Amino acid sequence: MEILYIEGGKKLNGEVGIATAKNSLLPIMAGSIISGKKVIIDKVAKFSDVMQMSKILESLGVIVEFENDTMIIDSSDCNKYAIKEEYTKKVRSSIFMLGPMLSRFGKARVAYPGGCNIGNRPIDLHIKGLKSLNVKIEERHGYIYCDGRNMKGGEVHLDFPSVGATENLMMASVKIKGVTTIHNCAREPEIVDLQSFLNSMGAKVYGAGSSTIYVEGVDSFCDTEYTPMKDRIIAGTYMIACAMCGGEISLSGGKKEHNQAVINKLINLGVHINESKGYIEIKSSGRLKNIPLIETQPYPGFPTDLQNQILAMQTIGRGTSVINENLFESRFKICNELNKMGADITLKDRMAIIKGVSRLYGANVTASDLRCGAGLVLAGLVADGYTTIQDVYHIDRGYLSIEEDFCKLGAEIKRLNK
């Protein structure tokens, strides 16, 4: 077991690059099997979730190879349409395989997905959407059985703008004759990225980034080489870290437009944030006023994946803050760990009331999920004394050697074997 060991109290200064987005890589990897051709993905960050997805592809007969940070996927001999529980329980994004397998084989069998325990994340939106495409679905013995040999296009209405359901429906529709229209779609930048990737293979997908997406079915696809977007959640995490620690940092590869909801909050507190020539520059004096109210919402609202990080910032702010978590009911597990460090947080259902304290104190804490772990790292960076974080494998799911990035910015943080 590994731990992160942090000596807090250092300001952040310097430059760090932003890795390719995990939440773009995973659906793109899943979608690569649709073509039956060779797919080259450049600048791949080897998050643990990405490596787990590569194992899922290999279990289907796909050849996955790495040349430095380039991933080469050859699905020409992909001959299986069932994913065992031993793979799906480790990464929730395995559910993304439903749409691609239906496109490739007309059928799919997937065990129920695992991933971070942050609350109920039902797959009913995926299933209802696929049924709208005339996919016959049965759920039994922990598996989802899909028969899409008679899929038909038409109108699909999502009850909620789910990212995963939107992506699955896009990928399931690319071979269906005629035009499929998906309403109330998620609008995240990762949806736009998936559209660009699918179109690079020869698909005809339009409208991503808006609430309606149109998919015109095609018969054949081609080889492609594609570079996914940078990870806006990593960029947002490092912006918040600089805001709470103080200092001046530059993030290479980030885009302000992808994090506008977070940036607006920070600018209103007096943090200086500029974008210039492929860099986002952040400058902060440290301990800020608290933001009175934060509500997590689907994009372009405040992202739930940055809620724990900004909650950590609020613990040392001046004043009181309220955070309403509207997407995942179990995403406040970080609060007990922060309270061990001297924070003053009270929970009421999906609401956290944070009374800012003048300082946090180092403690032994545990990451219960990916974003909780990131928030605890940020808390450790500002705490007096030493903080140890257990179960860092959660953090590795979405941050590539987070300790190395923060060391580049002047933090005292290292990974140790327990």
Question: Main traits of this protein?
Answer:
single chain; 418 residues; alpha/beta; 14 helices; 27% strand
Characterise this structure.
Helix content is 31%, strand content 27%. The chain has 14 helices and 24 strands. The strands form 6 sheets. It has a 4-stranded mixed sheet with strand order 22-23-1-24, with helices on one face. Strands 2-15-17-16 form a 4-stranded mixed sheet. A 4-stranded mixed sheet has the order 4-5-3-14, with helices on one face. Residues 115-121 have low confidence and may be disordered.
Concise account of the structure shown:
The chain has helices at residues 22-31, 48-59, 85-88, 98-105, 124-132, 163-173, 189-200, 232-245, 260-268, 307-314, 334-340, 370-382, 393-396, 402-408; strands spanning 2-7, 12-17, 38-41, 63-67, 70-74, 82-83, 107-111, 136-140, 143-147, 155-157, 179-183, 204-206, 212-216, 224-226, 247-252, 272-276, 279-284, 293-295, 320-324, 344-348, 351-355, 364-366, 386-390, 412-417. The protein is α/β, with parallel strands linked by helices and 418 residues long. The strands form 6 sheets. Strands 22-23-1-24 form a 4-stranded mixed beta sheet, covered by helices on one side. The chain has a 4-stranded mixed beta sheet with strand order 2-15-17-16.
